[in-house]
Amino acid sequence: MKLQTGGMMLLVFVFAAGIGYAVDPQPAQPPAQGENPPAQPPAQPPADESMAPYTCTVGHVTVTGTKPWKDVIDKLAAKINKALDGPIAKFGLETKASIQFGLAPMPAEKVAEVTSVVIPTEQDSTVHYVMAVAEGTQDKFDINSMTTAAQIYLCLNVAYAMEIPAVQPEVLKSYPKWFWLGFTAYCGMLAAQDLAGDESYRLYNSLFGEKKLELFNEKLLTWNWKEKLQTDEYFGRVCAEIFIQIEKQFGPDALVKIGQGLAAAPKADKDALVKVISDAIGQDFAAWLKNFKCTAKYHVIGFNADGQYTGPGVKAASITPDSAAAEAGFQKDDIIVKINGTEIRDNPQLGHVLAGIGVGGKVVATVKRGDKEIELTATLRERTVFTFDVSEFPTPPPPTPQSEEGEPRA
Questions:
Q1: Is the peptide bond before 312 cis (omega within 30 degrees of 0)?
Q2: Which residue intervals of 38-145 are DSSP H helices?
Q3: How far apart are CA 74 and CA 56, in angstroms?
Q4: Residue from 165, 167, 189, 281 nearest 240 by CA
Q5: Quick count: other Cβ atoms within 10 Å of Cβ 186?
Q6: How far is CA 218 from CA 204, 214, 223, 291, in A?
Q7: C-beta neighbour count of 125 within 10 angstroms
Q8: What's the whole-number average pLDDT of the chain?
Q9: Alpha helices, DSSP H only, in 136-231?
Q10: Among 51, 136, 284, 407, which is most buried by a count of CB atoms within 10 Å?
Q11: CA separation, residue 27 to residues 24, 39, 306 (Å)
């Protein structure tokens, strides 16, 4: 309850400054016999309308703010709820998680100082979040901006992570990390598409696509231990490929059967989940996963971006020797500002544009080198050696035997 209380107290604190409450600590005493009743205090003027609270609930999402932000709040509630329900419905499930999203108007100079934190409440599968906005900007607020999308996306991913335990409490006993993280990342991918459309790669950056599943297909079903790894986010993207490929090969009905099978399963350990998915796709899932081979090709140019450079464009921290970029004449500190006529804002966009060109495609890059702009031409090569190797990840320890209550046995 501490998390929930903290979340709600934060919302209360944000809005309490504009709402006054007069509380008499002593109960009122009746007047003595023969005395005139005390004069009634004058009626208080209405509270400042700009700070009067306003709340809108749509489905599993409640957005709270102040009345001047009513139109924004109504749209946000509908937008967030659609992005929450849609991915979960792909699995034939009704949403159990909920989101409490607060808008906090404050002086513009203070907005940049606010660091919002997602506060989850596991007991009731609720996500609490407060987004700072500048006072008096409700008419200019862009509900579809990438800044807004990123904050919504953060809340959604926490809600998706709560969904599996809410649907199937047994999952907490065996903790099948591959299924749990895969479900969350898959839903996150769909939410990114819903929130950002063609710019979804800025929210969900899934490098190498199907190739990841091929490289991990020998390990996925054994990666179910509770210890936290630095690879969790990456591993989740890998596991999302399970659902992506199942939908491609067996159709959307297979995902519905997986979700409904999970909800009905008496257990949610590895064997139970393998059976659920096997029944959904009509063949042995473990064999399908082990034998999965990817035929897609993945590009590489050899231009290694400087992560400290904020743009516009993408600055080279280094150039890979014997790469397409080296052959084309790229140099350290070059800044790519255009690719095939498309302006490049940052590294995620550069990767997205190059992926669209593909292996064997011609790249004409406009590059700033010092005070000059030059054009360099390269042909994208196939990436055959990846920057990660499954052998680099730690070997999972043997599963800890679980008691009926889910606690490790002594």
A1: yes
A2: 70-89, 108-111
A3: 6
A4: 189
A5: 26
A6: 25, 8, 10, 9
A7: 21
A8: 80
A9: 146-167, 171-174, 177-196, 210-216
A10: 51
A11: 7, 16, 68
CA distances from 244 to 153, 161, 252, 291 (A): 20, 18, 10, 16
Distance CA 59, CA 98 (A): 9
The 10s digit of each residue's pLDDT in 266-285 is 888 888 999 999 999 999 99
Domain ranges of the chain: 2-17+48-145, 171-296, 299-382
| Per-residue exposure over 28-62, b if at least 16 CB sit within 10 Å of its own CB, e if not | eeeeeeeeeeeeeeeeeeeeeeebebbebebebbb
- Spatial distance between the Cα atoms of 354 and 357, rounded to a whole number of angstroms: 5
Nearest-CA neighbor of 344 among 320, 317, 363? Answer: 363
- Looking at residue 377, its pLDDT comes to 94
Q: How far apart are CA 114 and CA 174, in angstroms?
A: 38
Q: Which amino acid is at 198?
A: D
Characterize 350-365 residue by residue with b for buried, 16 or more Cβ atoms within 10 angstroms of its Cβ, and e for exposed: bbbbbbebeeeeebeb
CA–CA distance, 312 with 132 (Å, rounded to integer) = 26
Look up the pTM and report it: 0.75
Which fold, 299-382? Pdz3 Domain (2.30.42)
What is the C-alpha to C-alpha distance for residues 397 and 242, in angstroms, rounded to an integer? 23
Q: What is the DSSP letter of 402?
A: B
Q: Which residues contact 225 (CB under 8 A, 6 or more apart)?
A: 175, 177, 396, 397, 399, 400
Helix (H, G, I), strand (E, B) or coil at 24: coil
Question: Tokens in use for 160?
Answer: 């998706």
CA count, 13 A, side-chain hemisphere, 353? 22
Of 359 and 298, the structure prediction assigns the larger pLDDT to 359
The type of residue at 232 is D
